[in-house]
Amino acid sequence: MDCNTARMLITFFGRQGSELAREDAASLEIHLAACPDCAATVQFERSFDDRVARAMLAVPVPAGLKGKLLDGVAAQRGAWYRQKAYALVGMAACLLIAIGGVVAWQASQAQPLSLAQIAEDADQRDEEQRPVRVREFLAHEGVPFHPDRPIELGLVEAYGVRDFQGKQVPALFLVNTAKNARATVYVVRDSDFQWKKLPQDGSSVISKYGYQIAVLRDTERSGIGYVVVFTGAGLELFLESRLSG
């Protein structure tokens, strides 16, 4: 290695030679050991670097500089957070506006409600479901319920097991609101009563409170009958045929 190469390495890679490759550093050390002029130059430059470093360290740090630097960093950080917060608030506002628009559109598409329609629908569901529930009750009690004069089950207001002449029998309670008439249908069996000896139409029997009596037979099971105790103009008020009249 010649002197020009040695001084170039020192100039471009630091006078301490710490940034040189291992091979170049070894060659440089060999050259400096053999060349007093290059060695003196390097020694001078290293001394100069040391003096500059000591002078820099000797410069006093202004009072409050650390605090000012930290305050500046905090201010920049606060500004960054504020920008992020403003951006988030803006996004939230846009989202709320969008949601509000969707809600308003849905509200404009919503179906209007009518109290009269709601009441009519409730009546219709009740009229459709009531006969089904009554027949399920009678089926549970072992009654097929096929009276020879078809009773309108849509008029049934209540049903259950009730005492009748000392026996617990299935019973239906009907109300004809339009005609201010009521009826109770008792399901009787041969095993409990000699009901077949009653007149099939006992409506001529009227109690002091205006109750009339009719006896109906089941069209499928001869051992089952129906004793109807009712008020009003006649049994027709509680029969399916009333709908066509």
Description:
Strands 1-2-3-5-4 form a five-stranded antiparallel beta sheet, with helices on one face. The model has no long low-confidence stretch (mean pLDDT 81). With 245 residues, it is α+β, with helices and mostly antiparallel strands. The protein has five helices and five strands, in the order H-H-H-H-H-E-E-E-E-E. It has helices spanning 3-13, 22-34, 36-58, 65-109, 115-140, and strands spanning 156-164, 167-176, 181-189, 212-217, 224-230.
Keywords, separated by commas or semicolons:
single chain; 245 residues; alpha+beta; 3 domains; 5-stranded antiparallel sheet
Q: Give the overall silhouette.
A: rod-shaped
Record the strand order, biggest sheet.
1-2-3-5-4
Q: Biggest sheet, in brief?
A: 5 strands, antiparallel
Structural class determined from secondary elements? alpha+beta
As for the number of domains, it is 3
The total of helices stands at: 5
Please bin the fraction of helical residues: 40-55%
Low-confidence stretches are: none
How many whole angstroms does the radius of gyration measure? 55 Å
Order of helices and strands: HHHHHEEEEE
Any chance you could write out the topology, listing elements then pairs?
Elements: H1 3-13, H2 22-34, H3 36-58, H4 65-109, H5 115-140, E1 156-164, E2 167-176, E3 181-189, E4 212-217, E5 224-230
Antiparallel strand pairs: 1-2, 2-3, 3-5, 4-5
Helix pairs in contact: 2-3
